[in-house]
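Structure first, sequence second, as always.
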C-alpha cells in the first residue's frame, strides 16, 4: 500500500476563533501546519501517493509545490459537506487499499504503520481506535473480544462504557464505499457494513491529538516538543550575547533575541520572530513565524500563531493565540492558575495523565474571557 487520502476541509467549529475561517489543517503546530505533519508521517511510512480532499483546494496549492519533489500530491474539490461527502469525493481512490486520514488528527508516524500492517494482516477494513475516558468528543467504537467492530456512533451524546474513541485513521474497501454511498451518514454505513462483513480495529495507545478545540493545540505542542532532544539554532538568527539559551529548542532563520532574555526549552521559535529585552520564553511554547514580543514578556506552554504582537510586561500562560492578534501591554492570561500548577501537570508525564488534567482545566477556563484562547485578528487590552 502506497496511497493515502487526507480529509482537510472545514475550519472546525471548535477552533474557528483561532483559524479565522481558514481550514484547521493549516493551523501551525511547532513550525509546520497540521497537514504538513500528516504528510511527513506518511512519507516516513513510504506512502507517497497522497490525495487531499478540501472544500477550498486553492489554499493547499503551496503544499503540493513544497512536496512536489518527494511525493505525488493532488488536491481534489470536496463535493457536498460533512465527513461522508468528503470521503465520497475520493471514492475512486478509496475503493482500492488506501489509508484514510482525518486531516485534523496528529499522531506519530508509527500509528499509520500500525493501521497499514493491520490491514495487510487481516485483509479486512480496519479503523484505528484510541482508549479515551470520555468518547463524546469523538466517534465511539465498540468492539468484541476478537478485535472486531460491533457498533459505531459518529457523534455520541452520552458516555458509553467500554467504547474506544475513533482515531481518525482507517482503511476501507470497495464494498464499504458502496455502502457509504447508499447511507446518509458514516455511522449508518458502518452499522450496515458490520451486519455483512468483518470490520477490524487497530488499538493505538501512544499519543494522539484530534484538533477540535484550542487546547488540543497545546496538547499537540507538548507532545511534539517532548520529542525534541537537541539545540538547533539557525546561522541566520541573531542572539544577543547576554541572552541565556537552554535547550532543547529550535530557532529558525532571521530570529532576533535581545539582551537579558531567557529561552528555556523545549520550545520552538519560528522565522522572523523578534523577542525584546528581559523576556522569558519558557517550556512547551511555540512562537510561529513573524511573532513580535515586546520587553519583559513571559510566555509558558502556549501556542502563538503567525504574526501575533504581544505587548510589554504581558504574561501568557497556557494560551492559544490566533494569527495577527494584538495583545496590548500588561495583559495576563490564565491568571486563575499558578504557573507551578501548570508545571505539576507537565511533571505528571504520560499520555493519559497529561490529556486528562489539561482537558479538565481548559474546559473550566474556556468560558472565561481570554483565559485559554485569543481569537485571530483580535485586540486584547489590559482591562478586557
Amino acid at each position: 500500500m502506497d496511497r493515502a487520502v487526507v480529509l482537510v476541509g472545514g475550519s472546525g467549529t471548535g477552533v474557528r476563533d483561532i483559524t479565522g475561517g481558514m481550514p484547521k489543517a493549516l493551523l501551525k503546530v511547532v513550525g509546520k501546519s497540521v497537514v504538513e505533519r500528516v504528510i511527513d508521517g506518511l512519507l516516513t511510512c513510504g506512502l507517497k501517493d497522497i490525495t487531499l480532499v478540501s472544500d477550498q483546494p486553492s489554499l493547499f496549492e503551496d503544499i503540493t509545490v513544497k512536496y512536489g519533489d518527494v511525493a505525488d500530491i493532488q488536491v481534489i474539490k470536496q463535493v457536498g459537506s460533512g465527513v461522508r461527502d468528503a470521503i465520497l469525493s475520493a471514492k475512486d481512490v478509496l475503493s482500492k487499499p488506501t489509508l484514510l486520514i482525518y486531516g485534523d488528527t496528529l499522531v506519530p508516524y508509527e500509528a499509520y504503520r500500525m493501521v497499514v500492517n493491520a490491514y495487510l494482516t487481516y485483509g479486512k477494513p480496519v479503523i484505528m481506535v484510541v482508549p479515551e475516558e470520555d468518547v463524546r468528543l469523538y466517534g465511539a467504537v465498540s468492539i468484541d473480544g476478537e478485535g472486531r467492530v460491533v457498533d459505531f456512533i459518529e457523534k455520541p451524546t452520552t458516555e458509553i462504557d467500554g467504547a474506544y474513541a475513533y482515531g481518525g485513521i482507517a482503511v476501507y474497501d470497495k464494498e464499504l464505499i458502496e455502502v457509504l454511498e447508499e447511507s446518509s451518514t458514516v455511522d449508518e454505513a458502518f452499522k450496515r457494513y458490520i451486519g455483512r462483513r468483518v470490520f477490524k480495529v487497530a488499538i493505538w495507545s501512544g499519543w494522539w491529538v484530534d484538533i477540535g478545540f484550542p487546547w488540543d493545540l497545546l496538547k499537540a505542542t507538548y507532545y511534539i516538543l517532548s520529542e525534541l532532544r537537541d539545540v538547533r539554532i539557525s546561522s541566520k538568527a541573531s542572539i544577543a550575547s547576554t541572552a541565556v539559551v537552554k535547550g532543547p529548542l529550535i530557532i529558525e532563520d532571521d530570529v532576533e533575541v535581545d539582551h537579558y532574555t531567557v529561552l528555556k526549552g523545549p520550545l520552538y521559535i519560528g522565522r522572523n520572530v523578534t523577542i525584546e529585552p528581559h523576556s522569558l520564553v519558557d517550556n512547551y511554547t511555540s512562537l510561529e513565524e513573524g511573532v513580535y514580543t515586546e520587553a519583559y514578556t513571559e510566555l509558558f506552554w502556549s501556542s502563538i500563531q503567525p504574526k501575533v504582537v504581544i505587548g510589554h510586561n504581558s504574561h501568557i500562560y497556557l494560551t492559544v493565540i490566533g494569527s495577527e492578534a494584538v495583545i496590548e501591554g500588561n495583559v495576563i492570561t490564565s491568571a486563575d492558575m499558578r504557573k507551578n500548577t501548570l508545571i505539576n501537570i507537565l511533571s505528571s508525564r504520560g499520555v493519559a495523565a497529561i490529556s486528562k488534567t489539561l482537558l479538565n482545566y481548559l474546559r473550566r477556563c474556556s468560558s472565561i474571557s481570554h483565559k485559554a484562547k485569543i481569537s485571530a485578528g483580535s485586540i486584547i487590552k489590559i482591562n478586557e
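Margin note: Residues 351-365 form the longest helix (15 residues).
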